[in-house]
Description:
The protein has 618 residues and is of the alpha+beta class. Helix content is 45%, strand content 17%. The chain has helices at residues 52-66, 98-103, 110-129, 163-166, 180-183, 190-206, 216-225, 231-234, 240-249, 261-276, 292-300, 303-322, 362-381, 389-406, 410-451, 458-473, 480-493, 506-523, 526-530, 539-551; strands at 9-10, 13-22, 25-32, 37-44, 76-82, 85-91, 96-97, 142-144, 150-152, 552-566, 572-585, 592-605, 608-616. The strands form three sheets. The chain has a six-stranded antiparallel β-sheet with strand order 1-2-3-4-6-5, covered by helices on one side.
Amino acid sequence: MTRPQQYQRLGKFEMHQLIGEGAMGVVWKAYDSMLRRYVALKLLNTTFGATQELRERFLREARAAGVLQHANIVTVYDLGEAEGQLFIAMELVEGRDLSEMITSREPLALERKLDIVIEVLEGLHYAHQRGVIHRDVKPSNVRIMPDGRVKIMDFGIARLQSAEISGGGSIMGTPTYMAPEQITEGTITAATDVFAVGCMLYELLSYQKPFEGDSIHRVLYQVLTTDPKALRMVAPSIPAALERVVTKAMSKVPSERYRSAKEMRQTLVGIRLALSGATDGTTQVIGLRWSRPFLKLITRAPAKWRLAVLTALAVVAAALALLPPSEPIAAPDEPPPPAAVPVTTEPATPLPPPPARADFPRAVTARREAALAARERAERAGAAQNALASWLQGEALFERATRDLDAGRIRLASQGLQQAAEQYRAAQAEAERLGREARAAIERVAPIATALSARREGTKAIDLLERADTLLKAKDFGMIDLIAEQMERLGRDAGIAIPSAQPADPRAAVNVLLGDLERAVATERIENLRALFATAMTPENDTRWRAFFATAHEPTVTYRIIGFGASARGDVAAAEVQAVYSFTKREGGPPLEDRQELIVRFTRVSGAWRIADLRKKD
């Protein structure tokens, strides 16, 4: 492209300072001599204007972005062509890119990180409603202004980054944040930007990129085929609810992500409010919005005025400090104070609440005891360990109700205790559901560890299973699904078929298990047989099966129960089974059939029936 340094002027613009450079071109701090204001002037690579078709396409896309007028989107002032150079003149935004803050590992509060992403989603939702998809959401395209506001940059330009423009089929853009459908040239929707926001939130929370590699192609391969490390493995203090948000946003299947930026924003706002202890949507996000006019007045006033204002404030503060404390006077229905209730983000056991006072009305005392009982049940179910949003809301409501009781606001306290109990009950139900799902996930993949026990991957599978069991006992459910997915990938890579779900009735469950054994024999893989045994196969069974697979070609088998019995406790069973093996010899010959009567013993492991022993009937 034409090197921008040779331009002292470009049309009406005076270029004062080079402030950015990338694959698409360069950005200058420039002065618009017509409108007399500074702008960010982006000079596009000459590739964009290589043909009339590309030039028109660029102008069309840039104009689409130019109509976006939103507090969280950088405004496009002007666009066009001057002296053969395509340009976009945009709002000059002071501040720092989010990428700089991540690189420097700036210690931002979790609430502040959520506020940033919530504002990004606000801007994206506004654009999506108007048919504009960003396509290149990433930390370097998010600007944090000195007053805390967030601005999204480069709207409408990323759509031009295609193989058609870059030539030779190379990919322009930022592979780490590209959704799979961008790489495979699939349909681009609002979910494409949601994926990028998920990647950005992952990096903001952990200070690690979700997909990394030593080449672009390795990164693209990871985006298409590999899940990133579980967020709470790299950032253990993150609430489980927030990890689930990131995981859903980064799903490789667009339909499994949030349906819109608005839906993801609403979910994050709920978590954000729970972290701050707010009980309704009126609480503002952390930031300096409420004080902007005052800050502007102070920072732009002469020094002597600023000194006078600050001195006056100090005098007022000192006078207030000397006043004697007054007793709170409030009507029973006075609204609660607006101060947010701080709630810890760590799933730790909170301090015990203060004892009930004898002078409280009996109805309020009963509600308080009911709330405490609901709280205890929710904690036992794992609500605190998983930092569920409903648990955090319940804690905030209970603490506020306690303050209301101490202040004599009985009616408000009674309402707050009732609401807290409802939130605790919801937290208990959600925690119990997560526990059931986690237990089912472990039961589903446990056979993989057994099947891989004799292989190199077996150690990793066993370690993962033990970690999942430890998390289940600690009622920390958030990562168990991710561990189960890792084990399923190990199983698929090894060609292992996961056993089928079984009904509650022991005989019916054993029938399902024998059906799995029939399919395992047909695969001729000893690993698939191991997955159906409760423990490692005996050397006798292992040798017998290996000898059978070595001589039999395309074997099939049918098993039929002719006698069955189960223990009263329902944890062990035995069956007399008729087996018919059909196969041909590997060296050729007619089809053969081998009929056997077997004695098969079963045991119930982690809620599922497995084979304990299988041998011929004497």
